Amino acid sequence: MPIIRRPRPHTRNFAARRFVDSAQTIGEQAIILQMYHAANVNDAAQTKCTVCWDSVYQQNSKSNCTECYGSTYENGVKFTYRSWSIWTEAQDNEKYTKRGEYQPESRDVQLEAYPEVFQHDFLIRVTRWADDGRTPLELYPWRYVFTSGITDAIVHTGGQLSQGDQDRWGQRASVSALTRDHTIYSYPISLVNPYPRKSGPPS
Length: 203
Fold this sequence. Notes:
- The protein is mostly beta strands.
- It has one helix at residues 9-26; strands at 28-35, 53-54, 59-60, 77-87, 91-92, 95-97, 100-102, 105-112, 122-129, 136-146, 151-154, 168-177.
């Protein structure tokens, strides 16, 4: 007679802990800029950008808005968290544009389960942290955008449909370095104040 086991939250917690242990050995902490998206914003509470949003055409009128950073929502950045991460080496990709050859820096990165990242969120590497491990002292000169291929790492237990937030122990994604003229470089990152780490599912 088959045995159907009950869901085991400790299995997900164990997998998440193992990833953090690995990242603390071979990885690094990074700063995630979680932007406002249609999927994570309440339009009644969060207004559209007053600088670039065109209410007639229902789209942004500026591609490089320094108020919403391209998100079309006021202030642009919803949350700023630090997360343990493991990066691959840079991939050599060539892209030809009207101005000539351009070689963007692309990498794959694995992150903690929270906060959940979306395409067009941003990631900032930190070259030096304070002794508290929470306050950045020096930033890597390039900033990265999450491109396609964001995949949840999920543990299935209990013979039931995975519930996402409860079963996710990590995330895998592809990121690309942004050129220095991108508006996200104007977003200030404090080198004095500590950044929180989101370690659990949203309540």
